[in-house]
Amino acid sequence: MAQDMTLLWGSGSPPCWRVMIALEEKNLQGYNSKLLSFEKGEQKSKEVLDINPRGQLPSFKHGNVVVNESYAACFYLESRFKSQGTKLIPDDPTEQALMYQRTFEGLTFYEKLASVLFYEYYVPEEEQHDSALKRNKENLSTEIKLWEGYLAKLGSGSHLAGPALTLADVVVFPTVAFLFRFGLSAERYPKLGEYYALLKDRPSVKASWPPHWLENPKGQDTLKDL
Ligand SMILES: N[C@@H](CCC(=O)N[C@@H](CS)C(=O)NCC(=O)O)C(=O)O
């Protein structure tokens, strides 16, 4: 069934990783997976631009359906393959509300992470300021404490929106993985550390782990002081 699906993706891109986890959780292994290189600018190749005028990854196609936005692709897969693989949207309205809340807060979480980790990439050199990066780090630190608190409230062994894995985990886990890859202290943030440990060995996550992280398991320590 997944043969009519194509995912164009880049290694270590959190938006791409979200879609890859969703595909695995929905048992859609066997899709056409094409790894492109950001270094070579392949996200601007004709193959990508033909389906994604933004020239970004992920770019995703299922038959004639094109869904490039990572959140949209994850929601599409859950809705299209509702009864297949892991159920990612709980039926219970209260659980569902929390799942939606954390899923969309995940966008803010990622934005704050990106404003620190990718500062030099996104801000032209002449516009970069130490004070701006410092402020971004403070904002990220406040955000991380929020998520640490959410997990503390849910109790040990919990996922982001309750006992079971949901779409919230699919879209937010890559952000958490980046935090630890870039040196966040699991001692200072034990709940996030526990959550990371719980998910990192999940088959869907292992199967989609960024290949260049496997080649080079040691990350950086950019976030060690947060
Ligand atoms: N809103 C998009 C964002 C995708 C995105 O920002 N992709 C980045 C990689 S993480 C990209 O392709 N950047 C290269 C570029 O914009 O040229 C989504 O969530 O799918």
Automatic annotation (TrEMBL):
Organism: Kryptolebias marmoratus (Mangrove killifish)
Name this polypeptide is given: Glutathione S-transferase rho
GST N-terminal domain boundaries: 3-85
A Pfam family: GST_C_3
GO cellular component: a single term: mitochondrion
GO biological process, one term: L-phenylalanine catabolic process
GST C-terminal domain location: 92-220
GO molecular function: glutathione transferase activity; maleylacetoacetate isomerase activity
